[in-house]
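Hey, quick one: can you model this chain's 3D structure?
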Amino acid sequence: MPITTQPIHGEYAPLINDYKVDFFWRRFVRTVLGGPNVYLHFKAPRYIYFFQAVLLFVPWIIGACFTILAEFIPATTNIPSLYYAIIYGAIIAIYSFILHYISFVISRRLNIMDSLTLNQNMPSDELEIEFKSCCSSTTWYFIFGKKTRIYNIVLHPLCAGGLCGVSYYYLLPSNIITLFSASSTWIPIYTLGWISLSIAQYPLIVTCPPEPAVYRTTQVEELEPYRRPFYIAAIAIFSLATRTVIIALLSSKILRQVFISYNTIGLLSPLDALLPWLGEQLLIIAYGGSPMANDIRLLIQVVLATCIFLPTCFVSSSVFTIIYSTFFGYLLSIDIFGLTIRLYSKIKKKARRVHDVNDTIKPSQVSSSSPSISTSGWKSDSTEILVHFALIIVASGIAAATSIVSINSLLTTATKATINTVLTFVIITLLALIKVTGDLQGVYLFWGLIPNPIYPRSADRKESFAKRKRHLAYFGVFYRILLLIVAPLVMLAYLGFNLAITTGTNTLSLFVFGLGTIRATRWIWQSTIHALFEMSIVLIITLIIPANSTWINLGLGLQLLMVAVARNRLQLLMGNLYTATLLTVTSYTIKKQRARWTVPLLIILPLTLPLTLTMIVIASALSAPLLPLFTAPIFLVGFPRPRRLWPNGGSDAASRCHDTVYYRQLLPVLSSTLSRMIARGVLREPSPGTQYLLRFQDRLIWVIVLERGYGYCNLNIKGLEMQETSCHTVEAARIDDIFQLTFEREERTPFCPLNRYFFNIMQPVDAAYLETYSDARSVMTGILDSPDNIKLLTSSFVNTLSWVLGRHLIIPHLRKTLCKNERIKNQDKKISNQLVKPKDELIDQENKIGKDASTSSTMPVVGSSKIDHQDRVDKIEEKDDPGRESLSSSTSDILPNKSRKKSVNDSIWSENDDGSLFGSDDDTKETTNASILQKNTSKNAKLAGEGNLFSANKQIDQQNDEDILNFNGPVIDVNKKGTDKGIVESHSLFSVPNSVVVNNQRDQDHFFFAGPATDINSKKQLMPIINRSSLSGLAVKADSPLLNEKYDSNQNLSYVNLQYLNEKYNIDLPSRWSDIPIDGATLDDLIKRYFRSDWFQYIVNHLAESIDDDCKQKESIKALASDQEAIRIFSEIIMLCYAVVDVFGVPGGDATVASMEHVYRSYHGKISPSSQLSWLSENKILKDAIISAYRYAVKLMYDTTILGEVTSLEELSDYLKEYDSDWTIGAEGSSEWSDGILKSKPHLYSLGHNKSEGTYTTRLLTLQDVLIYVGILSSESVQSQWSSLALELLYFTNDDEERYSIQAHPAILRNLAVQAADPPLGYPVYASGSFSTPLF
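Sure thing. Here's the predicted structure for all 1336 residues.
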C-alpha cells in the first residue's frame, strides 16, 4: 500500500511516490541482509537465490567446522584456538580472492555492459535481466557486481580474512563463557554474533548493499565495503582487549543490534564521515580547536595539535608547560593557513620580480595588481604579522609572569586569594558587558524574544537609520576591544595563577595537566566568548562548593574541559528540542501542513515521547543531526558527521545560470559588511555551523560559518535562484513579513512586545545598506508602440551612428596615423644625426641601444633580434602574472606575428593587416615596445570621453584581410585559458565601449554593445522640451518618396570617392567600398532627410578640442570637420549602414511605421536579411558598431520620451558620453551584460520580450545603496532538514517534485533549505566557496 498523504488544505503531496514504495522495500531487504538481492520485481531462476544464500553463510559454515575442532575435539589436535583463528582467516581470504579474481577475469574478457554494474544508487533490482545459465556472465555480474579499483581484488580478501579470524576467536564458546561468566547464554550470543558476521563480510566478499547513511554521492575509493567490517572488528577487538564483564555485555548487545537495527536506521557513519567526525571531536574537545572547512585543514590541525601536545606529557615543569601552551595555543587559533598562503604568494611574487629584473625587464612593467591567493581581507600582510607578533609577546609575558609568581609562591596565600577573587569578578563582569554590548546593537534582545528599544525604528529612512547605527557602533568598538584584547588576557592571567600540577608528576598526571593546559590556553583565543562563559561557570561552581571536594581536586584545566563539553552538548540539545517542538506544533497549527496522518501521529506522540527524547539526547550527545523522517515529526538519529555536514563545506559547486553574476558582483562588499557585523557582535557571536539568511529585493543569500578562530571567520556564501517558484514565493513572503514587521516600526509599540514570529527558524538580527544593483522592470506599452516614438527612434539612429562611427572609429584612426607619421619623421631625423657621428661614438650608441632595447622607450630597429626577446618576455609575463594580461596583450599587438589568429581587436584599424579598412603602408609594419604603447594609451585616453573604448572581443576565423575593419587594438587570443566565457578585456587605443563576445559565425547577429543609458530617476538630468526634428533627427517629409524598393544586385551601385580620403588623410578603406549596394537616388534622399552634417562636425570638433598639446593633430582633425567632400563620403557610408537596418530591413522600406518586433529584433542584432545585409556581414565589426548605435538610439528614445527632448548638441553629446562611460546597454543574460555587472557599471539597460503576455519590457539596473536584511537561522533545524533530504534522495530515491518534504513550510523554510543544500541534492545558483574574512 503506498505511503501517501492528503493535506486538508492544499494539493496532494505523497511522502513517497507510489512507484517508489515497492522499490524501497526491495532496497530495505538488501540493507537488512547485507547485500543479497533476494526480493526482485521480476521472476529469476532459483539458482540466483541459492548462490546468494551460499555466499552469505559460507563463512559461518566454515567457521562452525573450525569451532567444533577447537572446542569439542581439543584432545585429538591439541592446537591452540588462536591458531585455528589464523587458519580460518587465511582460508576465507583465499576463498574471497578466488571469487574476486574470477569476477575480474570475466569482466575483462566479456566486456559486460555498464548498465548491469551494481552500485548503491542503481541496484540491479531496477533492471529486468534475462539469465541464460547459472554460470553465465550475466549471473556473475548480477551477484558480484564490478570492482572499479583493481587493488581491491587483493585488499578486500585480506580484510575479509582478518575480520573472520578476529570474529571467530571472539565468538568461540569458551571465550563467550569466560567473558559473560555464564555457560547458558553462549548459544544465543554465538548465533546472533555469526549472523552479524555473515552480514558484515558479504560486502567484502560479494557486493556492497545500499546503505541509509550516505555521506558522499560518489564512492571514488570504494570505502563502503569496509563500513560494516570496521564496526564488527572494532567491537570484537575492544571486547577481547578489555576482557571485563561489563564491556563484554555491552559489546555483545552492540554486536547483536548493530546490523539489525543501528545500521538499518542509518545510525552508523560511513568511514569517510566517521574519521573526519572523530578528528573534529578530538580537535574541539581535547585541543580546544574549531571545526574546519574541509578535511585537509582538519587533518593538518589535528596533526599539529597532537605534535604540540605530546611534549607536555614528558615535562614536569608547570611554568614551561604554561608558557609553551600559551605560545602555540595562540598560533593555532589564528588563520595559519591563510597567512601561510599569503606569505608564500608574496615571496613567490617577489622572486618573480627579481627574475624579471635579471632578464632585463623593468620592474615597473610588472603589474602589482595580480590577484592574491588569499581572500582574508587584510590590506597588508606586514600589519597582520605585527599584530600577531605583539599579541603573542604580550600573552607569553603574562603567562610567564603569572605562572612564575604563582608556582614559586612569590605571593602570600591571602594576596593570591585576593587576586583570584578580583579576577573572578572581572571575568564575570566582562562576560556580562560583552553580551550586553553585542545584543544592544541587534534588533532583538534575549535571543529574539523582545525588540531592542534603542534600535532604529525604521530602516527605510536611510539617513536617520544610518545616524542611529553610527551611535550604536560605539557599542561595537567597545565590544571588539573587550572581546579581542581584554578578555583573553584577563583569562590568561587567571590561568597562569591557577594552572598547576596537583597530583604528582607521574605520566597520567602530566598527561591530564598538559591536555588541560593546551586546551585552555588555546580556547581563550579560539572562541573567546565561549571560554568566558565556561570559565565563569567554573568560577561560580568553585565559589559555591567546599574547598575539599572532588571538583577542586580535578584541577582547573580538567574542570574547564568538562564544562566546555557540557556547554557544547547542552547547546545542541536546546537546538534539537526547539527543532522537534517547532516541527511537531506546526504540523497541526499550519493548515496546509496537516495530513491524514497528522492527528493520529499527534495522539501517539505522548506514548512515544520517551523514545523521541532518547533520540534527541543521543543526537545531541553524538553531535549528530536530528533526522525528521520526510521532515515529519517522526524523529531518528542521523549518523555522526562533521559540523559542516557536507563532505566539502567550502565547495563552490552550484547550478549556475544568468542570475549567478549578480551574486558574484555582490560578494566583495557583502563579505566586508558581514566581517564588520561579526566583529561588532551584531550577529550573536557565530560559531562553526551557524547560518544566516539575507534578503534584499528579490534575492536570497544563504551564509554558512565553516570555521571560526581568533581574528578571522571562514564563510561560504550561497545565492538562491531569483526566479521563484510558487513554493519559494510562500516562504519568501513570510520572510518579507518578518523583516517588515521588525524593521519598519513607525509608531512606538507597547512596552516590551513579544516577537510575533518567535517560532520560526529565522530570527532577524540586523539590517544594512550595501552598494549593489537595484532592479526596476517596466512595460514598454505606450512607448515602443507609439508612432511618434518610432519616428523619433528612426531619426535618433542616424545621430547615434554618427557618434559611434565618428567618435570611436574614424577620428581615433586619424589621430593614430598622425602620431605614426610624426614618429617616423623623428626616427628619420635621429638616424640622419647618427650618420654624421664618429665611428666609435656610433658603435657605443648602438651597443647602448641594444642593451636597453627591452627597457627603454626607444624604438627598436625593424627586424632587430630584440623583437624575439621582447616576445619571449611578454609570454613569460603573461603566463606568470595574470594581472599583466592587458600589458601583454598590448605588447603582443606590436609584434609582427603573421601566423597568429585574428581577434576582433586586430580586425579594425590594424597596423599589421595590409588590406584592413584603413589600409596599410610600410610604416604600419613598424614595431614599438610596451612602454611607448602605454604612453600613447595614456595620452589618448582623454580623446575617448570617459575612458571606455570599444573592444569587440570576437574571434574571426579565416577572414580576408581586405574585408576586415581593424581597430589597431592588441592581439588577444580568445581561445586562451583563463578567459571567462569568452570575455576578453582589451585596452585598444581606438574602440567602441562595452562590446560583447561572439564565439562563432552562427551567433554573429547577437554581437552587440552594452552601453550606458540615462538614469530616469536622476533629477539633475531633466531636460526641457525641444523640437524633435532639430537634434534627435529630421522628421520625414510628406512629399518624400517612400523608400520601399528592395535592393537588386542587378541595379547600379553608388560610387564613393575613397581615393580622396586616402590621398588627403591617409585613410585607406577597402577598394570594394567604392561601390556600395544602394542606388544613388535612394542614398541622396536618405542623406537629405536624416543626416546631420552639423552634428557630425560637432563630434569631430569636440574631439579635436579634447587634444591638449599637439596642435598639428588638432588642426588636421578640424580640417576634416570642415572638409565637405570628406563629410559627404562618411555620410554615404553612415546612411548605408542606416538603410541596412531601417530601410531594407523593414517591410515597406519605412522604419517610421515599423512594428515593435522590428525594434526588438534590431536591438538584439537580428536584422532582416537582404543583399545589403550580406554585404555588411562581410564587415563584422562595422555591423557590430551599427547594432551598438541602434541600442543607443533605443535608449535615447526612451530617455527623451520620459524626461523630455534634447535642446542642444551639447546635451545630446552629454547623453551619449554618459552611455559610453556609465552604462551597459545590451541583452540581459549576454556576456557583455555579465561583464558590465562584474565591473560594477553604474547602470545597465536591456530590452526584453515577454512571450507569454505578448509585451515588450525594459530592465534597468542601477548601482546604489540597497537595504539588505540579515536573519539568523536555527542551524540544528537546517541540518535536520538536510540530513532528511540526503536520506530521502540518496536512499529512498524519492525525487518527486511534488513530494511532501519539499512543499512550502513558512516556519521551517523547508523549500529554501532544500535549495541551499550542496549539489547534487540542492541547487543554489551561486556558491562562493570557502573564504576567510578578518574580524580585527
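One thing worth noting: The radius of gyration is 39 Å.
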